[in-house]
Amino acid sequence: MRGWRVGSIAGIDLEINFTWLFLFALMAMWLAGDHFPGKYPQAAQWEHLTAGLLATVLLFVSVVLHEVAHSLAARQYGVGVSRITLFIFGGVAQTDSEPRTAISELVIAIAGPLCSVAIAAVAYGVGWALQQVGTAPVWSGLFAILGLVNLMLAGFNILPAFPLDGGRVLRASLWYLTDNLLRSTYIATLMGRGLGYLLIGMGVYSLLFEHNLSGLYLVGMGWLLGSVAAGAYQTARVQAQLHDVSVRQLMRPAPALLQATDSVQTAIDSYLRPHQVAALPVVYGDRIVGILRAREVEQVDPANWPYLPVHQLMTPLDPLADVVGADTGAFDALAAMSRDSRDYLLVADSEGIAGTVTVADLTGPLRGVV
Fold it and tell me: Taking a C-beta distance cutoff of 8 angstroms, is the pair 342, 321 a contact?
């Protein structure tokens, strides 16, 4: 899930998905138009509005800090985090890999709820201090609601249902006890799907019998939890199947190298069609400068193939995203291709380009696996 980049925290991009705007607006309207006026009727309207907006902002700052806590813990165990995205169901941190050990997953998972509890403690402390100095009740009430919501956030996230933090704690604990990541993931994600079905049921009941539109939110959250849980189990299956398999074992031999000045017609007649390959590296002299993909060629009028040089259709080489080491794990390469939206990688060893690998090459061992 992507959004608009609004800044960075500790080197991690912070993004806002458009769906978050709806949640922000609803939360602000509820706090400013219902909660604070109902609880503190003696306060002025401007105080209700100010407290509502400020509380909403602080609540989402709390969500960001919750995800930052996960991210900083992940970094300690070598798990990179590229961005944090706020969306209608909260926040999510985008990692470049899964934790390698049960202990690392446990620490990463528990960091978020602990951060939320710490924020709640600070919020209640500030609210108490404001009461002692005699400020208007609406301002201490602002921090009271901030503390309560953070406790609720921690409590919900600690439920033992993957992909919630508690589900990750459950998986880490089972993984540590059984040394079986796949089985542990199955149990944790089964709990996640169960919670998803429960939330969907609660949402449908709320819609049909209580005529409460908030049921839509429960249905959406339940669907998301169930979908992510199912996807996580499939990922774990792939990881287990590709355990100890390297890219070198699945790659194709080093391909022919196209010169950037060759015509597209030459590329098709001499390489793409005869060898039935999806892409080829392009060189300028002895330096690889890009990749020519068959799907890009197919979008061009065949009448132009003899006159169009390869460099005008190639995708410029991104060494970090388009090249993988031959000894890289097959699952890690597959995860990187998914993250960077790649379907083809060059494989390099100490002597240079040793071969190529596609998604189909990496998933070939999975065919027929249940």
Answer: yes
The model's pTM? 0.81
Q: Which class would CATH give 247-366?
A: alpha beta
Torsional class of 244: left (φ above 0), alpha (ψ -120 to 50), beta (otherwise): left
> Which one-letter DSSP state was computed for residue 255?
P
Amino acid at 317: L
**What number of residues does the chain have?**
370
Model pLDDT, residue 240: 85
Query: Is residue 89 packed enough to be buried (19+ CB in 10 Å), middle (13-18) or exposed (0-12)?
Result: middle
Task: Give the CA diameter of the chain.
Answer: 84
Which residues are CB-contacts of 149 (< 8 A; sequence separation ≥ 6)?
59, 62
Which residues, given as ranges, of the chain have pLDDT below 70?
Answer: 1, 255, 365-370
- Domain coordinates of the chain in residue numbers? 4-158, 247-366
User: Using an 8 Å Cβ cutoff, are 306 and 262 in contact?
Assistant: no
Closest C-alpha among 229, 232, 165 to residue 199? 229
Per the listing, tokens 């890289």 go with 328
Residue 368 confidence (pLDDT): 47
d(C-alpha 41, C-alpha 59), whole Å:
22
